[in-house]
User: What shape does this take?
Amino acid sequence: MTAIDQEVLGVEAVTTSLPRVAAENAPVPVPRTIDARRGRGDRVFFRGASASGMVVLAIMGAVGVFLAIEAKQALVKAGPSFLTTAEWEPDRGRFGIAAVMLGTVLIAVVAVSVALPIALGTALFITEVAPTWLRSWLIALVDLMAAVPSVVYGLWGLFFLQGNIIGLSRWFNTWFGWLPFFKVTGSDPDNPLSNASVYTASTFIAGVVVAMMVMPIACVVMRQVFSQVPPGEREGAYALGSTRWGMIRVVALPFARGGIIGGTMLGLGRALGETIAVVLIISPSFKINFHVLEAGANSVSSLIAIRYNETSGVGLSALFAAGLVLFVLTLIVNFTASWFISRSRSGAGSEA
Amino acid sequence: MTLLDDRQQFGEPFALFEDAGAFDHVPVAPAPRTTLPGRPDDVVTPSVQRPIARISRQDVLTMAGSAVSALCTTMLIFGQLTSLSGTLGFVVVAFVIFVVTYAVVVGISEDGPAVVDKVVTVLLAAAAVLAIGALSSVVSFTLWRGRNAIWRPNTYTDDLGKTGPLDGVDKGGIAHAIAGTLIITAIALVITVPLGVACAVYLNERRTRVAGLVRTVVTAMTALPSILAGLLIFSTWILILGFERSGIAAALATTIVMLPIIIRAADVVLRLVPGNMREAAAALGAPQWRTVWHVVLPTARSGLTTSVILGVARGVGETAPVLLTAGFTASMNVNPLRGAMVTLPLAAFTLVKSPLPSQIARGFAAAAVLMVLVLVLFSLARILGGRPVGQLSKRQSRRAANRSAQDLRRALARHASQPQATTEVSG
Assistant: This one.
């Protein structure tokens, strides 16, 4: 600091005393070399981080690769008939996933159609209706519902729901039995004392149990997009005299449409892969069966869980082939779901 | 409300000022160009304050009245008019009648849109009640069915190795399943925590195309059917490498289930670390690894803990991968490298398939213990995750203050030992 500076600034006491540097010893100022290369620590760090990323990528890729390797034998043997055959008798050379795939999709469709209205209603209730103190509780409970292990839902479905829901199955069959989906072979709607066992272990019951697991997943995504509705549009609707439902109908639902579709598809992906709850409830059948209320159902994952002890090479390979198809199907559904969510106006910043 | 109303209700608004003489110099305003049509005095209604409370007494009474009426009507239908029966049917019929009655009663005093609004509100609340009711039904049913075994100490201390088929729930237990769950989860954690957090750091620090691909794949894998994770380990570890079914195989399968969940959650948390903290570290000359190690990770610590706990909660409850890789045993095995091991969900799944009531009770006890475990983990995650990124708890801020006081002492001591600190001067 020069004397002039001192005068201008009015600074009197400089507390730091700088050592005087002899003029002849003054170092010649050298421009600092600008080096954009990272230090050794950073290079190690980045290699390590990239390695962990690659390991994760490799593990995830391995799922698909090893499924394909193990499935090759069965796929070569069965050829295209693998997709169209309903029976599952690998030792006799007749096996295909037509029936189990149909069963998987039917269970998932039942689950999503039960879960969608409840998830949508709950998400709207949480974001629009519930008072603040209730809101945080409901969010926690819905998250908790997603965390309950599937085997617990399976036990509940097998020992509690199955006994209580047969009345509903019977009612559907009695009044809507003319629809092909609700037909039950061997049922007698006119006889109130008829055997209830034709309604047990059905696709419908398995679907309702899976819906319990789908609901929270879909609900979380929907709640996130509803909470992102721009306050300006929301208040604009109210300012124009809209009721709460009017605001939901013209502002919230259109805004969240992508999130609703995406959340539902994420739930669908979960429903397609659910194993244990389905194994506990269904009684496996290998017939192409559209009657969702009827006893006897199947799904790819439960087929694997039941038959994994197969000893024959073809039998095991066929299971891997079924797993591969399930893998591809879930990937398609999940990628479509993320696409819907990220493309929608509401989901640009969401994490799903 | 027009100006006219205002004046009539509150009197002349400017009367006060005119009396005080403050506006004496203000010229008298010219007559307004718009003339308001006068209204006869008797038409003017006194303005009442609009009710802005969310729930009025009328709402409560309407709802209660409709509920009582719906209940009575349903009882009449079920008891007297028809031969309907069943709890489920009763609830459904009662609810439908309630909604219709409520709509009609609201319609007496409100107009169309308001009726629709109230009915929809009732439907939304019903959906939430249904969801919560289903959850509480699952929880209470599991606890209720396991009640005979849950309270017995032998459930937690014994295994089923020496339990005969006719022994009651006072003999034998699920200690082997509890031990198996703990061992398998611990091994899975040892693998997933470093790998998962490192991968999340990678996703955040390197925004390359490869990192984008990793993120996409991880996102897709969070929804991977868990049985396929079991199939992968089954095909590689057991079929190709020829190892037996064991705890370590189950732990590897659980790892594959937990890994994407932990990475996803940790990725989100790390992204929330404020950019100015990174920039501050960089401006102080820290290389990037130091920034990550000393700034980013400690800042996100509570969120990272939450993501690990969520991963554990998911991994602990998975049955399908363990079913394929762990085998099943009735007796205690604490060696993950050799012999079959069993976890709580697998024990529940296997035991309830038995026809014996005591086995089923033990299965429900295993499910109940598992559920309580998940519940505890989950509450822990909520408590830890409830704090925003970077905000410290009391103890943490005390520790940070101590550290910084220590730093100050260190700096002072250093200053004292080197009084002639040289500084480059310019100008």
